[in-house]
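ok so I'm stuck.
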Amino acid sequence: MSERLLVLSVILLVAVLVALWAATRPRVLTARLRRGRAPGVTPSGRPLVLAFTSADCAACHAAQRPALAELAARLGDRVEIREVDVLTEREIARTFGIFSVPSTVILDAEARVVAFNIGFAPAERLLVQLPPTRNGGAATRS
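replied:
not stuck anymore, here's the structure
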């Protein structure tokens, strides 16, 4: 009986540690990447949304892609939106620690990470997360 209790305790401890790691991972990655320019991303002078996807991701195609299209329609050329297939562009997915799709990363005009979303992110959330543009006007205003 005590061996069983010990095994259950270890399993519970591991589950709690994994849950804590998963909950804090985006903040840790964002903080680490905010220290400078994101590797592998060239600054374009405007905010960038990296939308991580894969060919077999139903949520990417049914929900995230329409949200990105809405964002593009609202902001036009004031923001760059780039889809990144995690299976063909593995290095950039690894750089940002992407383990699930859809995921989105928001970068400012100098290619510094300002927000990180795991799972579907509606257009309104992305709009709020976008930083102001260089000319002082907010990229988030239409």
